[in-house]
Amino acid sequence: MQEAIQKANTLIEAMGWIRRFRGKTTVIKLGGSLLENEIALQHILVDVIFMETVGMRPVIVHGGGKAITAALEKQGIQPQFVQGRRVTDAATRDVVRTVLAGELNEYVTQQIEYLGGRGMNLSVHTTNVLHGKRLMLDDEAGDLGFVGEVTRVDRQVIDGLSYTNQVPVIPSMCVDENDGEHLNVNADTAAMAVAQALGAEKLIFLSDVNGVRREKDNPDSIINSLTAEEARQLIKDGAIEGGMIPKVEACLATLQRGVGKVHIIDGSLRHSLLLEIYTTSGVGTQLVP
Ligand SMILES: Nc1ncnc2c1ncn2[C@@H]1O[C@H](COP(=O)(O)OP(=O)(O)O)[C@@H](O)[C@H]1O
Ligand SMILES: CC(=O)N[C@@H](CCC(=O)OP(=O)(O)O)C(=O)O
Which residues participate in substrate binding (predicted)? Predict the structure, then answer.
């Protein structure tokens, strides 16, 4: 009996948070490193289904860097990155389309259904909601090939799904508004574009580390609250490197564009998503202006 009362208390405690976020959109970016971990992914998706059930509007944007690299290597194509973006020739683009916009996108959606929720895959193979243009970095970066940035998001399609209790699942590819080509987009920047277009309350990046660290390999050096200025300095100093650079840059750009809260959290920590939403202190790193 005592245990049942305790459980009821927990539900009542959650009521304030549920009210606060009910009807609001949270964009959840699933990193490719996390998609490799089947158990962790299932736990996250259960949290996502819970959020949807209590009236929040979760929207998933996912990457798949690791799986793309593995598939390319199988075909004897050597992956190449410039400023955190994959150089994408036609053969690489075909692999990205098959693995990211096809297999992984279907896998995440099917897992949601398998766990009792309703998911809808929105990719270039089904219903595309991301439109864009070729990404031009500085001269030094050279031509990245079929790499894009998102310039427009079909908000109505995504909102329509949320109204009918479905979780939209969006891979990071867009269609070029000029010539209709399919373009490979860094998933962190795609999540940023979606969060901005939807006027999301929150953008949460789920990765395979506990947050942004002062020392990359030391989990105890996690920074709970990171200002824009400090983040830029850490990138300059080289303390933030590799895949964490586009993620932090996307966080900073998102804050400038009116999304209330941006977090980087560890997707392999059980219930990290709910802890982030339902606890006052939160988990991981919160980016602040
Ligand atoms: N300062 C830092 N703090 C935490 N992680 C860092 C830092 N600098 C670089 N990283 C690396 O960034 C990685 C996360 O980026 P990435 O591999 O692109 O993840 P995802 O697939 O989730 O997008 C971590 O696994 C870590 O190795
Ligand atoms: C242009 C570009 O770099 N696209 C990325 C898209 C996937 C991605 O970003 O996946 P993660 O979230 O796992 O990093 C790529 O090809 O790897």
Answer: 64-65, 86, 184
Q: Which of 244, 268, 287 to mutate to test the pocket of ligand 1 (most atoms within 8 A of CB)?
A: 244
Report the C-alpha gap between 282 and 274 in whole angstroms: 9
**H or E element: which one contains 280?**
none
Q: How far apart are CA 242 and CA 48, in angstroms?
A: 28
Query: Of all protein residues, whose CA lies closest to atom 4 belonging to ligand 2?
Result: 186
User: Domains of the chain, with CATH numbers?
Assistant: 22-288 (3.40.1160.10)
Nearest 5°: the CA angle 249, 251, 252 is 65
Phi, psi of 62, rounded to the nearest 5 degrees? -125, 155
Tokens of 197: 């277009």
- At 144, the amino acid letter reads L
- Could you tell me the CA-to-CA distances from 117 to 9, 68, 106, 217 in Å, in that order? 25, 27, 14, 36
Return binding residues for substrate.
64-65, 86, 184
ipTM of the complex: 0.96
Whole-prediction pTM value? Answer: 0.95
pLDDT digits (tens, 9 = 90+) for 27-61: 999 999 899 999 999 999 999 999 999 999 999 99
